[in-house]
Amino acid sequence: MVSEVNDDEGWDLVATRLAHEITSRGLTLRAIETATGVNYRTLQKLLAGERVTRRDRLAELARYLGWQGDGFERIRKGEEPAAATVEMSASGANLAEIRERDPEYFAQLEKLARLAIERLDAQER
Amino acid sequence: MGGLWRPWRELRQRPDISLQLVDFPPGPVHALSIVRGASKLVLLDRQLLWAERQAALTHELVHIERGPIPRGAPAWIVAKEERQVDDIAARRLVPPVELRRFVEARTSVGPVSALDVAEQFEVSLPVARRACDEIRRPG
Question: Above 0.85 for ipTM, yes or no?
């Protein structure tokens, strides 16, 4: 668990890291918006180093980038986000091929998996 | 045939594995196994027919046993692993010894088709075909 960080601190670190991830992965803000539901304006705010209060949106974005939900809180503290350790296998299909050929469908499957894990977490709680 | 391996029985003996029936998006994937740390989860498309569910669950249980394919693995490695998992799943649901016995017993009546095997072993047609391929392989 990440310890608390002052709400106004660390957003410049978030901006730098998010810009780096977008560039290095060849992402667009529209693609992120479509996949995560985090709206374009919020993404622009993050890239400008502005504070975003919706933690659920930040968690969604972190998971999209392959991190655990608290990834941006860690970044704000100057720490490295922890990689989400979810691995998926599919019956009757090659997920690596699907990821390359049809990223939109792959994103839908990842979302399905994420929701299932959240349901499981809720049950365990 | 009461001693055959059955995925639902196996699942009952594995409290560490959770199962969820969900609606999958339209596309070729109808089952997923997910491993996150100690949590293991199988998702099955609720639209699957009974025999398809059984095949998919078996496939995913074998995946979990063998360990997940690392994210980012190239497609050819994933394809190889998927073939191996399919072979293991087919052998579990249709053991080669039982299948040979069935084929020998039925040969006097006529040629045995994959459909006959699917009916006899209560498995999906793709599983039956793979099991038949398995006993045709030399060695």
Answer: no
